[in-house]
Amino acid sequence: DEIEKSGYPHFMLKEIFEQPRAIADCLRGRLDVKNHSVQLGGLTDVLDQLVNADRLVIAACGTSWHAGLVGEYLFEHLAKLPVEVEYASEFRYREPLIDENDVMLVISQSGETADTLAALRTAKERGALALGVCNVVGSTIARDTDAGVYTHAGPEIGVASTKAFTTQVSVLAMMAILLGQKRNTIEEEYAARLIEELNRIPDKVEQILDRSESVKEMAELFTYAPNFLYLGRTYNFPVALEGALKLKEISYIHAEGYPAAEMKHGPIALIDAMMPVVVIAATDHTNDKMISNIEEVKARKGRIIGITGEDNEEVINLSEFSCPIPETEDCLSPLLTSIPLQLLSYYIAVNRGCDVDQPRNLAKSVTVE
Ligand code: G6P
Fold it and tell me: Which ranges carry the SIS domain (predicted)?
Protein backbone atom coordinates (compact mmCIF):
# COMPACT_ATOMS: atom_id res chain seq x y z
CA ASP A 1 0.00 0.00 0.00
CA GLU A 2 2.68 2.46 1.07
CA ILE A 3 4.77 1.69 -1.98
CA GLU A 4 1.80 2.14 -4.30
CA LYS A 5 1.13 5.54 -2.83
CA SER A 6 4.66 6.61 -3.93
CA GLY A 7 5.23 8.65 -0.78
CA TYR A 8 1.87 10.44 -0.80
CA PRO A 9 -0.26 10.06 2.35
CA HIS A 10 -3.34 9.12 0.31
CA PHE A 11 -4.16 7.70 -3.09
CA MET A 12 -6.38 10.69 -3.74
CA LEU A 13 -3.50 13.15 -3.37
CA LYS A 14 -1.27 10.95 -5.49
CA GLU A 15 -3.93 10.83 -8.19
CA ILE A 16 -4.48 14.60 -8.06
CA PHE A 17 -0.73 15.11 -8.56
CA GLU A 18 -0.63 12.50 -11.32
CA GLN A 19 -2.94 14.57 -13.50
CA PRO A 20 -0.31 16.25 -15.67
CA ARG A 21 0.94 12.78 -16.62
CA ALA A 22 -2.52 11.22 -16.84
CA ILE A 23 -3.75 13.94 -19.19
CA ALA A 24 -0.55 13.72 -21.25
CA ASP A 25 -1.06 9.95 -21.55
CA CYS A 26 -4.65 10.53 -22.58
CA LEU A 27 -3.64 12.99 -25.32
CA ARG A 28 -0.60 11.03 -26.49
CA GLY A 29 -0.73 9.93 -30.12
CA ARG A 30 -4.12 11.55 -30.56
CA LEU A 31 -3.23 15.20 -31.14
CA ASP A 32 -1.31 16.26 -34.22
CA VAL A 33 -0.35 19.81 -33.36
CA LYS A 34 1.50 20.40 -36.63
CA ASN A 35 -1.34 19.31 -38.88
CA HIS A 36 -4.09 20.57 -36.57
CA SER A 37 -5.81 17.24 -36.38
CA VAL A 38 -7.16 14.78 -33.85
CA GLN A 39 -6.98 11.01 -34.30
CA LEU A 40 -9.14 8.76 -32.20
CA GLY A 41 -8.46 5.25 -33.46
CA GLY A 42 -11.30 3.75 -31.46
CA LEU A 43 -13.85 5.78 -33.42
CA THR A 44 -12.55 5.25 -36.97
CA ASP A 45 -15.12 2.63 -37.93
CA VAL A 46 -18.10 4.62 -36.69
CA LEU A 47 -16.99 8.13 -37.52
CA ASP A 48 -19.37 8.60 -40.49
CA GLN A 49 -22.32 7.53 -38.42
CA LEU A 50 -21.30 9.83 -35.62
CA VAL A 51 -20.77 12.77 -37.99
CA ASN A 52 -24.26 12.29 -39.43
CA ALA A 53 -26.07 11.67 -36.16
CA ASP A 54 -29.15 13.75 -35.31
CA ARG A 55 -28.42 13.84 -31.65
CA LEU A 56 -26.00 12.67 -29.01
CA VAL A 57 -27.32 11.32 -25.73
CA ILE A 58 -24.77 11.14 -22.94
CA ALA A 59 -25.50 8.90 -19.95
CA ALA A 60 -23.40 8.46 -16.81
CA CYS A 61 -23.42 8.66 -13.00
CA GLY A 62 -21.60 10.75 -10.40
CA THR A 63 -18.44 12.51 -11.49
CA SER A 64 -18.67 10.95 -14.94
CA TRP A 65 -22.06 12.65 -15.33
CA HIS A 66 -20.40 15.99 -14.58
CA ALA A 67 -17.83 15.28 -17.30
CA GLY A 68 -20.82 14.56 -19.57
CA LEU A 69 -22.24 18.00 -18.83
CA VAL A 70 -18.97 19.62 -19.88
CA GLY A 71 -19.22 17.41 -22.99
CA GLU A 72 -22.65 18.85 -23.77
CA TYR A 73 -21.25 22.39 -23.89
CA LEU A 74 -18.27 21.20 -25.97
CA PHE A 75 -20.25 19.25 -28.57
CA GLU A 76 -22.86 21.95 -28.96
CA HIS A 77 -20.28 24.72 -29.25
CA LEU A 78 -17.73 23.02 -31.48
CA ALA A 79 -19.73 20.47 -33.47
CA LYS A 80 -23.22 22.10 -33.37
CA LEU A 81 -24.58 18.73 -32.40
CA PRO A 82 -27.65 18.65 -30.12
CA VAL A 83 -26.82 16.85 -26.90
CA GLU A 84 -28.81 15.59 -23.96
CA VAL A 85 -27.11 14.51 -20.77
CA GLU A 86 -28.95 11.92 -18.73
CA TYR A 87 -28.49 10.37 -15.35
CA ALA A 88 -28.13 6.74 -16.41
CA SER A 89 -30.45 5.66 -13.60
CA GLU A 90 -33.25 7.96 -14.82
CA PHE A 91 -32.81 7.21 -18.50
CA ARG A 92 -33.16 3.47 -18.03
CA TYR A 93 -36.41 3.63 -16.06
CA ARG A 94 -38.18 5.98 -18.46
CA GLU A 95 -39.40 4.99 -21.87
CA PRO A 96 -36.53 6.87 -23.47
CA LEU A 97 -37.00 8.32 -26.94
CA ILE A 98 -33.87 7.18 -28.68
CA ASP A 99 -33.46 5.43 -32.02
CA GLU A 100 -31.04 4.51 -34.79
CA ASN A 101 -30.47 8.16 -35.74
CA ASP A 102 -29.11 8.91 -32.29
CA VAL A 103 -25.78 8.12 -30.72
CA MET A 104 -25.55 7.03 -27.09
CA LEU A 105 -22.30 7.94 -25.38
CA VAL A 106 -21.77 6.43 -21.94
CA ILE A 107 -18.99 7.68 -19.69
CA SER A 108 -17.65 5.50 -16.89
CA GLN A 109 -14.32 5.36 -15.14
CA SER A 110 -14.76 1.77 -13.97
CA GLY A 111 -16.83 0.58 -16.91
CA GLU A 112 -18.86 -1.44 -14.39
CA THR A 113 -21.50 0.96 -13.01
CA ALA A 114 -24.77 -1.00 -13.13
CA ASP A 115 -27.07 1.88 -14.06
CA THR A 116 -24.75 3.11 -16.80
CA LEU A 117 -24.50 -0.37 -18.24
CA ALA A 118 -28.30 -0.68 -18.20
CA ALA A 119 -28.72 2.70 -19.96
CA LEU A 120 -26.26 1.55 -22.60
CA ARG A 121 -28.18 -1.68 -23.18
CA THR A 122 -31.51 0.17 -23.38
CA ALA A 123 -30.11 2.50 -26.05
CA LYS A 124 -28.66 -0.40 -28.01
CA GLU A 125 -31.98 -2.27 -27.96
CA ARG A 126 -33.56 0.79 -29.56
CA GLY A 127 -30.99 0.79 -32.35
CA ALA A 128 -28.71 3.65 -31.29
CA LEU A 129 -25.00 3.50 -31.98
CA ALA A 130 -23.35 2.95 -28.58
CA LEU A 131 -20.06 4.63 -27.73
CA GLY A 132 -18.08 4.58 -24.51
CA VAL A 133 -15.50 6.67 -22.72
CA CYS A 134 -14.00 4.35 -20.10
CA ASN A 135 -10.83 4.17 -18.09
CA VAL A 136 -10.66 0.48 -17.26
CA VAL A 137 -9.55 -1.45 -20.32
CA GLY A 138 -11.68 -4.49 -21.09
CA SER A 139 -14.40 -3.50 -18.58
CA THR A 140 -17.99 -4.59 -19.18
CA ILE A 141 -19.08 -1.24 -20.61
CA ALA A 142 -15.99 -1.04 -22.81
CA ARG A 143 -16.83 -4.49 -24.18
CA ASP A 144 -20.53 -3.80 -24.64
CA THR A 145 -20.19 -0.59 -26.64
CA ASP A 146 -19.83 -0.56 -30.44
CA ALA A 147 -16.78 1.69 -30.23
CA GLY A 148 -15.10 4.08 -27.86
CA VAL A 149 -12.15 5.94 -26.49
CA TYR A 150 -10.14 4.99 -23.43
CA THR A 151 -9.03 7.73 -21.07
CA HIS A 152 -5.70 6.04 -20.20
CA ALA A 153 -5.62 7.72 -16.78
CA GLY A 154 -4.12 4.64 -15.12
CA PRO A 155 -5.69 2.95 -12.09
CA GLU A 156 -7.75 5.25 -9.89
CA ILE A 157 -7.92 3.91 -6.33
CA GLY A 158 -9.30 6.84 -4.31
CA VAL A 159 -13.09 6.62 -4.18
CA ALA A 160 -13.42 10.30 -5.05
CA SER A 161 -12.68 10.60 -8.74
CA THR A 162 -10.02 13.11 -9.83
CA LYS A 163 -7.79 12.12 -12.74
CA ALA A 164 -10.65 10.15 -14.27
CA PHE A 165 -12.65 13.37 -14.53
CA THR A 166 -9.95 15.48 -16.18
CA THR A 167 -9.08 12.74 -18.65
CA GLN A 168 -12.77 12.19 -19.48
CA VAL A 169 -13.08 15.91 -20.24
CA SER A 170 -9.88 15.70 -22.32
CA VAL A 171 -11.38 12.89 -24.40
CA LEU A 172 -14.65 14.77 -24.84
CA ALA A 173 -12.74 17.87 -25.97
CA MET A 174 -10.83 15.82 -28.55
CA MET A 175 -14.05 14.20 -29.77
CA ALA A 176 -15.79 17.57 -30.06
CA ILE A 177 -12.91 19.11 -32.04
CA LEU A 178 -12.76 16.07 -34.33
CA LEU A 179 -16.51 16.16 -34.92
CA GLY A 180 -16.46 19.92 -35.43
CA GLN A 181 -13.83 19.51 -38.14
CA LYS A 182 -15.73 16.68 -39.85
CA ARG A 183 -19.03 18.55 -39.65
CA ASN A 184 -17.39 21.81 -40.80
CA THR A 185 -18.72 23.67 -37.82
CA ILE A 186 -15.39 24.88 -36.48
CA GLU A 187 -13.03 27.40 -38.06
CA GLU A 188 -9.67 25.82 -38.92
CA GLU A 189 -7.79 28.51 -37.09
CA TYR A 190 -9.84 27.99 -33.94
CA ALA A 191 -9.41 24.21 -34.14
CA ALA A 192 -5.65 24.69 -34.46
CA ARG A 193 -5.64 26.95 -31.41
CA LEU A 194 -7.63 24.46 -29.36
CA ILE A 195 -5.35 21.58 -30.32
CA GLU A 196 -2.26 23.59 -29.37
CA GLU A 197 -3.88 24.64 -26.14
CA LEU A 198 -4.97 21.10 -25.23
CA ASN A 199 -1.38 20.07 -25.70
CA ARG A 200 -0.33 22.70 -23.13
CA ILE A 201 -2.88 21.63 -20.52
CA PRO A 202 -0.58 19.16 -18.68
CA ASP A 203 1.97 21.94 -18.07
CA LYS A 204 -0.72 24.32 -16.90
CA VAL A 205 -2.10 21.70 -14.49
CA GLU A 206 1.45 21.35 -13.18
CA GLN A 207 1.61 25.10 -12.56
CA ILE A 208 -1.59 24.91 -10.51
CA LEU A 209 -0.28 21.96 -8.50
CA ASP A 210 2.91 23.92 -7.78
CA ARG A 211 0.72 26.38 -5.87
CA SER A 212 -1.03 23.72 -3.78
CA GLU A 213 0.38 25.21 -0.56
CA SER A 214 -1.86 28.24 -0.88
CA VAL A 215 -4.94 26.01 -1.24
CA LYS A 216 -3.81 24.13 1.85
CA GLU A 217 -3.59 27.37 3.83
CA MET A 218 -7.03 28.39 2.66
CA ALA A 219 -8.44 24.99 3.64
CA GLU A 220 -7.31 25.63 7.25
CA LEU A 221 -9.65 28.58 7.47
CA PHE A 222 -12.69 26.78 6.12
CA THR A 223 -12.27 23.38 7.71
CA TYR A 224 -15.22 23.80 10.04
CA ALA A 225 -17.62 25.59 7.71
CA PRO A 226 -20.96 23.75 7.91
CA ASN A 227 -21.96 24.55 4.32
CA PHE A 228 -20.37 25.54 1.04
CA LEU A 229 -21.83 27.00 -2.12
CA TYR A 230 -20.15 26.61 -5.52
CA LEU A 231 -21.14 28.85 -8.41
CA GLY A 232 -20.14 28.64 -12.05
CA ARG A 233 -21.48 29.50 -15.49
CA THR A 234 -21.33 27.72 -18.85
CA TYR A 235 -18.34 25.34 -18.94
CA ASN A 236 -17.73 25.92 -15.27
CA PHE A 237 -21.23 25.19 -14.06
CA PRO A 238 -20.45 21.42 -14.18
CA VAL A 239 -17.20 22.22 -12.37
CA ALA A 240 -19.24 23.86 -9.60
CA LEU A 241 -21.28 20.65 -9.31
CA GLU A 242 -18.13 18.56 -9.28
CA GLY A 243 -16.42 20.76 -6.68
CA ALA A 244 -19.44 20.45 -4.38
CA LEU A 245 -19.61 16.69 -4.91
CA LYS A 246 -15.91 16.26 -4.03
CA LEU A 247 -16.40 18.16 -0.76
CA LYS A 248 -19.51 16.17 0.19
CA GLU A 249 -17.89 12.85 -0.66
CA ILE A 250 -14.76 13.13 1.40
CA SER A 251 -15.26 15.82 4.05
CA TYR A 252 -19.00 15.28 4.78
CA ILE A 253 -19.65 19.01 4.54
CA HIS A 254 -22.95 19.91 2.97
CA ALA A 255 -22.22 21.62 -0.33
CA GLU A 256 -24.24 22.67 -3.33
CA GLY A 257 -23.20 23.56 -6.85
CA TYR A 258 -25.35 26.00 -8.76
CA PRO A 259 -25.37 27.85 -12.05
CA ALA A 260 -24.40 31.30 -10.76
CA ALA A 261 -27.52 33.03 -12.06
CA GLU A 262 -29.81 30.57 -10.28
CA MET A 263 -28.42 31.71 -6.96
CA LYS A 264 -31.09 34.39 -6.77
CA HIS A 265 -33.81 31.75 -7.03
CA GLY A 266 -33.00 30.13 -3.72
CA PRO A 267 -29.45 29.73 -2.38
CA ILE A 268 -29.01 33.49 -1.87
CA ALA A 269 -31.31 33.08 1.15
CA LEU A 270 -28.62 30.94 2.80
CA ILE A 271 -25.78 33.42 2.43
CA ASP A 272 -24.36 35.01 5.56
CA ALA A 273 -20.94 35.50 7.15
CA MET A 274 -20.71 31.74 7.77
CA MET A 275 -21.05 30.77 4.14
CA PRO A 276 -18.00 30.26 1.94
CA VAL A 277 -18.92 30.71 -1.72
CA VAL A 278 -16.56 29.29 -4.31
CA VAL A 279 -16.95 31.29 -7.51
CA ILE A 280 -15.50 29.73 -10.64
CA ALA A 281 -15.07 32.73 -12.91
CA ALA A 282 -12.89 31.57 -15.76
CA THR A 283 -15.02 32.09 -18.84
CA ASP A 284 -14.58 35.45 -20.53
CA HIS A 285 -18.00 36.12 -21.96
CA THR A 286 -19.74 35.68 -18.62
CA ASN A 287 -17.16 37.60 -16.58
CA ASP A 288 -19.28 40.71 -15.98
CA LYS A 289 -22.18 38.58 -14.83
CA MET A 290 -19.96 36.66 -12.44
CA ILE A 291 -18.68 39.92 -11.00
CA SER A 292 -22.26 40.99 -10.22
CA ASN A 293 -22.85 37.60 -8.58
CA ILE A 294 -19.76 38.11 -6.43
CA GLU A 295 -21.03 41.55 -5.41
CA GLU A 296 -24.41 40.08 -4.48
CA VAL A 297 -22.69 37.50 -2.25
CA LYS A 298 -20.43 40.09 -0.65
CA ALA A 299 -23.36 42.41 0.09
CA ARG A 300 -24.69 39.56 2.27
CA LYS A 301 -21.28 39.02 3.91
CA GLY A 302 -20.64 35.71 2.16
CA ARG A 303 -16.95 34.82 1.89
CA ILE A 304 -15.65 34.60 -1.66
CA ILE A 305 -13.10 32.05 -2.84
CA GLY A 306 -12.40 33.00 -6.45
CA ILE A 307 -11.14 30.49 -9.00
CA THR A 308 -10.21 32.68 -11.93
CA GLY A 309 -7.71 33.48 -14.63
CA GLU A 310 -4.42 34.83 -13.29
CA ASP A 311 -4.94 38.05 -15.27
CA ASN A 312 -8.45 38.59 -13.95
CA GLU A 313 -7.58 41.28 -11.43
CA GLU A 314 -11.16 42.32 -10.91
CA VAL A 315 -12.23 38.91 -9.59
CA ILE A 316 -8.98 38.45 -7.67
CA ASN A 317 -9.45 41.82 -5.93
CA LEU A 318 -13.06 41.07 -5.06
CA SER A 319 -12.21 37.65 -3.58
CA GLU A 320 -11.19 37.08 0.01
CA PHE A 321 -9.07 34.20 -1.29
CA SER A 322 -8.26 33.36 -4.84
CA CYS A 323 -6.72 30.55 -6.81
CA PRO A 324 -5.43 32.08 -10.01
CA ILE A 325 -5.24 29.65 -12.89
CA PRO A 326 -3.20 30.04 -16.09
CA GLU A 327 -5.13 31.58 -18.97
CA THR A 328 -6.64 29.13 -21.42
CA GLU A 329 -9.45 28.81 -23.98
CA ASP A 330 -12.84 29.11 -22.28
CA CYS A 331 -14.02 25.69 -23.37
CA LEU A 332 -10.94 23.97 -21.91
CA SER A 333 -11.02 25.81 -18.60
CA PRO A 334 -12.70 22.94 -16.65
CA LEU A 335 -9.43 21.03 -17.05
CA LEU A 336 -7.77 23.69 -14.91
CA THR A 337 -10.49 25.05 -12.63
CA SER A 338 -11.34 21.58 -11.30
CA ILE A 339 -7.82 21.10 -9.87
CA PRO A 340 -7.90 23.64 -6.99
CA LEU A 341 -11.36 22.34 -6.05
CA GLN A 342 -10.00 18.80 -5.74
CA LEU A 343 -7.18 20.10 -3.55
CA LEU A 344 -9.52 22.19 -1.41
CA SER A 345 -11.77 19.24 -0.62
CA TYR A 346 -8.77 17.00 0.00
CA TYR A 347 -7.09 19.33 2.52
CA ILE A 348 -10.37 20.07 4.31
CA ALA A 349 -11.13 16.36 4.62
CA VAL A 350 -7.65 15.65 5.99
CA ASN A 351 -8.03 18.47 8.54
CA ARG A 352 -11.32 16.97 9.64
CA GLY A 353 -9.71 13.57 10.11
CA CYS A 354 -11.83 11.89 7.43
CA ASP A 355 -10.90 8.68 5.66
CA VAL A 356 -10.12 10.35 2.36
CA ASP A 357 -9.54 7.28 0.22
CA GLN A 358 -12.48 5.32 1.58
CA PRO A 359 -15.21 7.71 2.65
CA ARG A 360 -18.09 6.26 4.63
CA ASN A 361 -21.02 4.76 2.73
CA LEU A 362 -19.40 5.19 -0.69
CA ALA A 363 -18.01 2.65 -3.13
CA LYS A 364 -15.52 3.13 -5.94
CA SER A 365 -17.72 1.27 -8.33
CA VAL A 366 -21.46 0.91 -7.82
CA THR A 367 -22.47 -2.40 -9.29
CA VAL A 368 -25.84 -2.52 -7.55
CA GLU A 369 -28.90 -0.91 -9.11
C1 G6P B 1 -19.28 6.02 -7.68
C2 G6P B 1 -17.92 6.62 -7.41
C3 G6P B 1 -17.79 7.96 -8.15
C4 G6P B 1 -18.06 7.77 -9.63
C5 G6P B 1 -19.41 7.09 -9.88
C6 G6P B 1 -19.55 6.65 -11.33
O7 G6P B 1 -20.26 6.85 -7.09
O8 G6P B 1 -17.74 6.83 -6.03
O9 G6P B 1 -16.48 8.48 -7.97
O10 G6P B 1 -18.03 9.01 -10.27
O11 G6P B 1 -19.53 5.92 -9.08
O12 G6P B 1 -18.57 5.69 -11.57
P13 G6P B 1 -18.02 5.30 -13.00
O14 G6P B 1 -17.02 4.23 -12.74
O15 G6P B 1 -19.21 4.81 -13.79
O16 G6P B 1 -17.44 6.52 -13.60
Answer: 46-185, 218-359
